[in-house]
Amino acid sequence: MSEALEAQLDILQNENAFLKKYFALRQKCEQIQQANEKVVNRIQHVKKMIKRYKRERRYLANRLDDYGDNYRDVQVPVMWEEDKLLGATEPCSSFEDVEKEISSPMSSTDRTVSEILSNINPLLKAHGIDHITPGSKAKKSKADTNAPKKPANAFLLFCTQQRSSVQEEYYKDKHEEISNHEMTKRLAQKWNGLTPEQKKVYYDMYEHEKERYDKEVKEYHERESKSQGNVTQEVQSMMGKEAQSAVDALMMDT
């Protein structure tokens, strides 16, 4: 009797191990499937970008042909010529210069970076950008809560629309609330069951949301630049008032 029970326990343990492996593999497959959907969405976006860039390239080529520009015969400079233009490569003139370079505490990479930055810093300063040093690190800017939010992709838009219907269907069948894992699984199944024409509706919605986002970003930057201009004017007016008050005080003292 005990041998039979042990045999049944061994069978149950083996089945349990196989079930765990099955569910683990199933979950992995679902994750891969969702990743593939994101890649497909990205491919669609990249294809549209390529079409737009080709159209812009043809337009620019036609305009240059109209102006008679010989851009097709222009030679592209090689990398060492570009470095020479930036002042990055300066050969040593004598053996003493080589000794100075070897004894210098600054590494060759740091020296090259310093030379390049010394050449471009005047240009940056002319555009209102702060002076950059080799050791300076870019500061992370805090996220602006007033900035427009990026639109969701096509699959997430589909999930947003179908979530309530999936919840209702599951509650009618099981008489309980649906879990997040089951919700994701059912939404992925419904998405995979759509035809390309049905999916195109959500891809078009995504493109529409993306255009809206680009428009809101442009308006947001315009508002920010306008508000910064107003602050600058207020500061200048305050400085003018302080200067005038200082002049009046000097006149009274005299």
TrEMBL record:
GO MF: DNA binding
DNA-binding positions: 148-221
CDD domains to which the protein is assigned, alphabetical: HMG-box_NHP10-like (cd22016)
Biased composition (Polar residues): 227-236
Database matches in PROSITE patterns: HMG_BOX_2
Main location: nucleus
GO cellular component: a single term: nucleus
Domain HMG box residue range list: 148-221
Keyword set, alphabetical order: Coiled coil, DNA-binding, Nucleus
Pfam families: HMG_box, INO80F
Stretches for region Disordered: 220-254
Protein name (Swiss-Prot/TrEMBL): NHP10
Organism encoding this protein: Mytilus edulis (Blue mussel)
